[in-house]
Amino acid sequence: MILIVVKYRVRPEAVDRFLDEVADFTAATRAEPGNLWFEWSRSVERDDEFVLVEAFRDGTGEAHVNSDHFREGLARMKPLLAETPLIVSRSVEGEGWDRMGELTVDA
User: Fold this and answer.
1) Strand 2-9 and strand 86-91: pairing?
2) Poorest-pLDDT segment among 18-22, 35-39, 59-63, 83-87
3) Cα(55)–Cα(58) distance, rounded to whole angstroms?
4) pTM
5) How confident is the model at residue 107, as a pLDDT?
6) Residue 47 gets which letter from DSSP?
7) Are 15 and 47 in contact (CB under 8 A)?
8) 93: which DSSP letter?
9) What percent of the chain has pLDDT over 70?
10) 29-63 burial, b for 16+ CB within 10 Å, e for fewer?
11) What are the phi and psi torsion angles at 86 (to 5°)?
12) Looking at the DSSP assignment, which residues form a beta bridge with residue 9?
């Protein structure tokens, strides 16, 4: 699978509405056949930073970045950003989350 983590620094005046502004892009991406997950979080260290963790089945990432909703989502997002996002994008084995062996919780 392709595992991607992106950090978005958002302009102060856009922080409170950022997730609403990317809601259509988020919904369209989650509906893609190759999408495994597309999850937004807000940094606990920086009020103006949002973190996106996303994953796609092998061979489906190109369709994502070539989609209309991807181009539209980035165009809508760009004026809200304070700087160019930081990204890590890697191919990794598997197609989902694994349990953490170093920290097992007995229920």
Assistant:
1) antiparallel
2) 59-63
3) 9
4) 0.92
5) 81
6) T
7) yes
8) S
9) 100
10) beebebbbebebeeeeeeebbbbbebbbeeeebee
11) -100, 140
12) 49
**CB neighbours of 65 closer than 8 A, spacing ≥ 6?**
none
pLDDT surpasses 90 at 40: yes
Tell me the two tokens of residue 100: 């953490």
d(Cα 9, Cα 48) in Å, to the nearest integer?
6
Beta-strand ranges (E) seen in 1-107 are: 2-9, 35-42, 49-56, 86-91
Token reading at 57: 């089945």
Within 13 A of 95's CA, how many CA atoms are on the CB side?
7
Tokens for 82? Answer: 């304070």
HSE-up of residue 26 (Cα within 13 Å, Cβ side): 14
